Amino acid sequence: MDHAPAPDDRLNTEDFERFNAFIEDYCGVPVPREMKVLVEMELRRRARAQGLPGIHEYCRRLTEASDSAEWEKEIVDLIDRITNTHTLVWSHPGD
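Predicted structure:
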């Protein structure tokens, strides 16, 4: 079974910058460009968990429905996952 993402389901630089602006506006924590691949993997994982076709639909719903209780929890969970990964990567380089 092929787990490679579809070519149109990649996080390009413009999408990453838009996502990063959303997260930074939401909680004040910028996501470094070096984390783009890790962010893309987490977005894809969360999209699958939500039963969505890919990261673009996930990001659309995340930003458009951020005022609903369900998506509010999703945003907080996503930020926790990304910022925890960010902390681990930068706190333990070389591990």
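Summary: The chain has one domain: 11-91.
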